[in-house]
Amino acid sequence: xxxxxxxxxxxxxxxxxxxxxxxxxxxxxxxxxxxxxxxxxxxxxxxxxxxxxxxxxxxxxxxxxxxxxxxxxxxxxxxxxxxxxxxxxxxxxxxxxxxxx
Length: 101
Prior knowledge:
With about 100 residues, the chain is mainly alpha-helical. Helix content is about 75%, strand content about 0%. It is built from four helices and no strands. It starts with 9 loop residues before the first helix and ends with a helix.
């Protein structure tokens, strides 16, 4: 029986990489905590370090941990609001259809 391949969001990969970069913990330790393969997390860390270095060279300041947390919170909030809007659109269409009868 084959195992289903897991997929991870970009946000999750960046967060996992920053657990290594910001805390100074080893890749092996963080990989164990998250249930990930060390090689996979190592690639994510290397990719994020390259991205941070490129941002510094271009004069952009990378996001701080607080800014990343705020961005993640705001993205969740937007997703929740989009769900609410979709529900309200369906509800208004339902009530409009029932009102016309």
